Amino acid sequence: MKLLRFLLEIDRKEIREILFLNNLNIITSKKKSDEPGNSVGKSTLGRILDYLFDGSIKPIYIDEEFQTPKQEIEQLFTNSEVYASLEYLGLDNQHTTIKRRLSANIDLQSYI
Predict the structure, then answer these.
(1) Looking at the domain assignment, is residue 33 inside a domain?
(2) C-alpha–C-alpha distance, residues 35 and 58, integer Å
(3) What CATH number should be reported for the domain holding residue 63?
(4) Per-residue pLDDT tens for 49-98?
(5) Tally of domains within the chain
(6) Is residue 100 one of the residues assigned to a domain?
(7) What is the pLDDT of residues 2-59, one digit of tens each?
(8) What span, in angstroms and rounded, lies between the C-alpha atoms of 89 and 4?
(9) Could you tell me which of 20, 21, 2, 16 has the C-alpha nearest to residue 102?
(10) Residue 16 host element (H or E)
(11) What is the residue range of 95's domain?
(12) DSSP letter (8 states) at residue 105
């Protein structure tokens, strides 16, 4: 599998796009930033990719230490339609897109 593009949409508006390049892709802070690279979304991207492939939503919005919902993320999932999608080339060299709604409500965790 070759990853091509990740897209995050909130209420049908593109919020974040990550284009994957050939070879190694490294997630860091912006090039012209003095930030050390903490809290730029490296782990969150991995959790969302896992969710897209039928993983649990909990690692995305449940605090690991206290096992309680992260209020800001839970409110986002409740008050907005949040979708993540991943475009990739499969082993059969076919272009595929998988898209899934991020929601704490299991009935809304649909695939497209």
Answers:
(1) no
(2) 28
(3) 3.30.1490
(4) 999 999 999 999 888 888 999 899 999 999 999 999 999 999 999 999 99
(5) 1
(6) yes
(7) 999 999 999 999 999 999 999 888 877 666 656 655 555 678 899 999 999 999 999 9
(8) 7
(9) 16
(10) strand 13-19
(11) 2-22+44-108
(12) S
